[in-house]
Design goal:
Blueprint lengths: L2 H28 L6 H33 L1 H5 L4 H23 L9 H30 L2 H11 L16 H14 L1
């Protein structure tokens, strides 16, 4: 497996951890219980930045190489860039709902739970499609030279939460996730 595919697969595992953490907090809110709004906000902030700045560009590079190597195979993936734009819009909509809740109100359009479910379901559907269709096709059809091209271009894209150096704004979230992981085992 290429270095970039290892990163992309790890990104999906990390994101699923965040979605589970978010889902826990959403359930608390839906039940009228206290939730950790700082955790919710940190997850949303991460999802507003990292996927569009680092993760999706890596996938786009892989897709471009697949389009060069096997255009007929790449067509079967669909419009990945449009999917990424749609996911970004869903994330922005959910972020607005989160910020409304933080300010003490309910989201202007639709309930918070509805926005949260659309966000969670959208991410999970997208990752499932990539994990079961796109990634296996790329692995099967790209050559070592193709992967070298992609790997060279993604070297500078580092995850601010799960990478080697955790950015200050994500330290509390990272500690919470590590604690939840310990409790789950």
């Amino acid at each position: 497996m290429s270095a970039v595919m290892e990163i992309l697969n790890q990104d999906h595992r990390n994101l699923e951890r965040l979605l589970i953490a978010l889902e826990r907090q959403v359930v608390h809110l839906e039940r009228g219980e206290e939730a950790d709004l700082d955790i919710i906000n940190a997850i949303v902030e991460y999802c507003l930045t990292y996927p569009d700045l680092c993760h999706h560009p890596k996938e786009d590079l892989v897709l471009r190489q697949l389009q060069i190597r096997k255009p007929e195979v790449a067509e079967t993936v669909g419009n990945l860039e449009a999917e990424h734009r749609k996911l970004a819009e869903t994330t922005r909509h959910f972020a607005a709902a989160v910020h409304q809740v933080i300010r003490g109100g309910q989201p202007a359009s639709g309930g918070f739970g509805e926005s949260a479910r659309a966000f969670l379901d959208g991410y999970r559907y997208h990752m499932e499609m990539e994990d079961t269709a796109f990634f296996p096709l790329a692995e099967r059809h790209l050559t070592a030279e193709d992967w070298d091209v992609v790997d060279r271009e993604v070297e500078q894209m580092v995850d601010p939460l799960f990478g080697g150096r955790v950015e200050e704004r994500y330290k509390v979230l990272r500690n919470e996730i590590m604690l939840w992981d310990e409790l789950a085992t």
